[in-house]
Design brief:
Blueprint (H helix, E strand, L loop, with lengths): L6 H12 L2 H9 L7 E6 L5 H10 L10 E9 L5 E8 L4 H14 L11 E9 L15 H9 L11 E11 L5 E8 L4 H11 L14 E11 L1
Antiparallel strand pairs: 1-4, 2-3, 2-4, 5-6, 5-7
Length: 227
C-alpha cells in the first residue's frame, strides 16, 4: 500500500512518533549522532519509506544552530525521480527545512516505488541540540554527489513554467576534470528545462577533478519544480 495519508493524518501520526522518536528513530535509521537530530518515516509500504529516508540521510547535513521539528511529504514518481518535496509543518529553522528538501533532491533517484505508482513518503525531522559539527562522522559524499552540488546552483529555471520535470544527464569526465562529453540520456519532456540543465553542466570551471585523477562516467538526475 503506497502512502496516501491526508495532511491531518500525517500530523497525527508524527505527533505520536515525536513522543518516542528518540527511542525509535536511532536504532531503525542509524543516524550518525543522536545528539544532532532524529528522524522518522511513516511507512506502510513494506519498508520503501525507510529506504528513501536512509538515502537522504547519506547526503543531509544539519545546519548549525538548527532547532525545532518539521514534517515533510515527498512525491516520488514511478521511475524513482523526486517529483516534489513539500514542508507540511515548518520548524523554527527555515534553513534546516530547506536543507532537508535540498538533500531529498540531491539523493535522487530513489528505488522504484512499489506497484509502479507514484509514492508519497512522509518524513519527520527534529533538529538540535547539536550543530553541523556533529555530522563529521557521516560518510563523505560520492563524486557524483559532489558533481551534483557543484552544478545545481547554476541551473536557472526557465520563466513561465509550472510543474515538475526531471532530466537525466550522463557526463564523461577526463582525469583533469575537463568534460569530454555530456548528453541527456532521459529528457524531461520540456526542451527549455533540458537546455537549462545542460547550460548549467557546461558552466566553465565548476566540474571538480575526479578522485585519484581517473576518468569518470557519471549519471546525474536533476529535478526542476515551479508553481
Amino acid at each position: 500500500m503506497i502512502l496516501r495519508h491526508s495532511r491531518d493524518n500525517a500530523f497525527g501520526l508524527f505527533s505520536r512518533l515525536a513522543s518516542s522518536a528518540l527511542v525509535l528513530a536511532v536504532p531503525l535509521f542509524a543516524l550518525p549522532s543522536s545528539s544532532s537530530a532524529f528522524s522518522a518515516a511513516a511507512d506502510v509500504s513494506g519498508g520503501y519509506s525507510s529506504q528513501v529516508l536512509n538515502q537522504i540521510l547519506r547526503v543531509w547535513r544539519q545546519p548549525a544552530g538548527s532547532h525545532g521539528m518539521a514534517l515533510f511529504e515527498l512525491r516520488i514518481d514511478p521511475s524513482g525521480s523526486l517529483a516534489g518535496c513539500a514542508t507540511l509543518q515548518p520548524s523554527a529553522s527555515p534553513a534546516a527545512d530547506a536543507a532537508v528538501c535540498a538533500a531529498a533532491h540531491n539523493a535522487a533517484p530513489y528505488p522504484y516505488p512499489p506497484f509502479g505508482a507514484e509514492a508519497r513518503v512522509s518524513l519527520a525531522f527534529a533538529y538540535g541540540p547539536g550543530d553541523a559539527a556533529d555530522n563529521n562522522n557521516a560518510p563523505a559524499p560520492s563524486y557524483a554527489e559532489t558533481l551534483r552540488q557543484a552544478i545545481v546552483p547554476h541551473i536557472i529555471m526557465p520563466h513561465g513554467l509550472s510543474g515538475s520535470w526531471t532530466a537525466v544527464v550522463q557526463l564523461d569526465i577526463w582525469a583533469d576534470g575537463s568534460v569530454r562529453e555530456c548528453r541527456i540520456t532521459r529528457p524531461s519532456g520540456n526542451a527549455d528545462v533540458d537546455n537549462a540543465v545542460m547550460a548549467a553542466v557546461r558552466t566553465p570551471g565548476i566540474i571538480p577533478m575526479p578522485p585519484e585523477h581517473a576518468e569518470q562516467r557519471v549519471t546525474l538526475s536533476f529535478t526542476l519544480s515551479a508553481r
